[in-house]
Records
---
Amino acid sequence: MKAFYLLLFLSLSILNVSLACRKKCTIDPRVVRCSSQINYVCAFFKKNPSDKFLSQMDVINACQACIRPGVLSYEEGKCKARKVYCDPIFRPEACTKEYVPVCAYSWNEGTNEWQGKTAGNRCTACADASVDHYVKGACS
């Protein structure tokens, strides 16, 4: 049996599957006041109750993540998913000039489509209030 678990662990490691510890939100938002201390977490939530898959969003700390409606769990650190949603409540006010391009998407009312534009990094993408989400890498 030990050999099975060792083989399973090695297989997951080779496939680069995340074994990070996801924590369940247990905070009652009616009685908790959260600090604005920065210790980023990746919050997992459903944009719509009928969604089959969880979306991800960087939030400044675990308390701020868990008081949001729909957030089910979180992991320490920023999100590593391909599509990450910007936090609509805490938009960055200052960003570094580090160039790690992302493709930031905003909804275009005129064309009824998502419109992507390259931002210098995820902070500058989410500092723009019109941006809903981004993907890693420059827009093509």
---
Amino acid sequence: METSNTISADECSFSIRIDAFHDGELSATEQSAVRQHLNTCPACAAQLSQLQQMSRFFGENSDIRLSQIAMARLNNRLKSETSRGVIRLAWAMNAIAAAILVAGTVWLQHLQAEDSARTTSVAVASVTAPPWTGIAAANPDLPGKDAATPAAEFYLADATQKSADLP
């Protein structure tokens, strides 16, 4: 089995400068260094050759124009692909919104159940009579014993208390 001592263009340190060399973006000293390297590195020379072939191909075929029918087909295809992506995005956003609504509803129902359980236990614990309900029963000879409201009973009881304190 033979082993090859050649280095690929990806492994060569000069491979990143080949594009700049092809485009004429290097200084004179860097260009001469790349030229010398191209004489010794077949991988970089092949990479430069590919770039030159591609440049020639696009340079020769730059005047190709599409017919109106081909342009219309291309335009329709572009619109359909774009709208398909937008529709996919809309479906995804709707699914996310629905999931948030379902999760929020479940969470709010859970909170409401906890709150009603807490309110029921508080309501059961605080079922005591208000302070004014026992006043009339404690003083049977109050003049306004048949008062219409608990507040009236309270004020009437307070008035009789004050009249009893007077000499």
---
Amino acid sequence: MPPVKRIPYFHRITIMNEKLEALRRRIEHEDNLVNQRLSWLVASQAFMLTAFAISLNAPLNSLTPAYAAANRTMVLLLPYLSVACILILWLTLAGAIWSMKLLRGQAAAIALPNDIPVQSPPAIRSLGLAAPIGIPIVFLLLWLALIMAGNGGAHPVS
């Protein structure tokens, strides 16, 4: 029978407890979801802004009555659809952030003094939330300003 290898002391203290490691992986998964959802938000808003700009710049003299009505509808609805996309994606971001908070609480409850921290300190995590919270606000304010401008008759199609 081969001799049992002893794990050196250094390696014993760096091995994270299994439950803590599982929680760390779940937090990492939620963090990846936040990144994906933020990418979806930016991509969807880029698409909506492009469609809105193209609709606004459609040549007025070449519009058939049916096309003019469709263009007017696009210009009126795109800001509202964009706001709806922002709100839906914001809810999913909030869900992931909330989930990470709960997982961090579970990790804190089982962490031992020698365990490696699962995440950064709260102040650093707060800075990391600037994009998932701030970018939707920027797009939301942009669309609300466009909605307000549109209600004032800013679109030239009649």
